[in-house]
User: What shape does this take?
Amino acid sequence: MDWSRRKVFVTGGAGFLGSNLCHALAARGARVTALDGFLFGGGANPRNLDGADIDFVRGDIREIDLRPLCEDASVIFNLAAQTSHMGGQADPLADIAVNAVAQVRLIQAAREAAPDAVVVHASTRQFYGRVEKLPVDERQPVAPPDANGVSKFAGEQYWMLENRVRNRPVVSLRLTNCYGPRLRIRDARQTFLGIWIRCVLEKRPFEVWGGAQLRDLTYVDDVTEAFLAAAEQPACHGQIYNIGGSPPASLHDLAEMVVRLAGGTYVTREFPADRARIDIGSYHADDGAFRAASGWAPRTSLEDGIGRTLDWYRTRLADYL
Ligand SMILES: NC(=O)c1ccc[n+]([C@@H]2O[C@H](COP(=O)([O-])OP(=O)(O)OC[C@H]3O[C@@H](n4cnc5c(N)ncnc54)[C@H](O)[C@@H]3O)[C@@H](O)[C@H]2O)c1
Assistant: This one.
């Protein structure tokens, strides 16, 4: 697909994944409108969009008139979400208002203002819950472990309904843990790796909770490529796909790699009781269906990805605290 001059709407555009996508689209010459409400203590950061040639609108997807933002878009990348699992447990009404109800608002606005737009929806592996068999493909039954998993599943299903009933080309990407530049590193709210990076750069020990759990982290440039490929490939439209990343590694393996690359130390702790109740245990994706349909494959090794992420924050730490 030639992205040059193409009108694109990105929700959640000041967040971690949305901002990286905005940079990639702008670099390809797309005309990008990005919406973000800087809400819920998520990944939004004003620095995330530094240097991106885009139109940014600050607003809440639950309230703002979405029609002018969608107007004539050929692709909508839909990433705005309440993403905190603990936050969703604490305030499930706000969680569902963004992740499900506001999704229906966007669907209705897009029907009027961008009837032909392809929609790539950011979904999550979270709602598979605690699985018994790895790797996980898309036929795995859904068993959300928390309120956020319920609302994210509902939002995805409203979009897929729009595909079935109105023929809207929709692709839903069920992402695993993503990491890289522009990740929120202030605390543990956006993956464990964020706070680990902060701690090693501040020369403090970081905490590993549990340690045996497996994860298949995706580097953000590979996530961006997956979003672009999903929009570009008609074979993907109407489908739900798992997106994986690096070969599975335990949290202990990951901690050792961070220490090898950046120095520092870590301590291993029991999982905090309130988080253990909603923890999903080990996960890694079978993303073969998406690879086959789109030609996508993750290109960044864990070592390179973590190294690049550390380098990125070395010169920008203050902007992310
Ligand atoms: N990062 C990951 O590891 C991961 C994993 C699975 C799924 N996802 C999904 O990918 C998407 C992007 O996640 P992210 O990691 O970039 O998170 P993020 O918190 O950095 O980005 C989400 C953005 O949405 C914005 N937002 C939230 N509510 C809004 C509202 N009512 N109106 C307007 N903007 C609002 C936030 O301000 C934030 O900038 C989300 O849908 C998330 O569920 C991410």
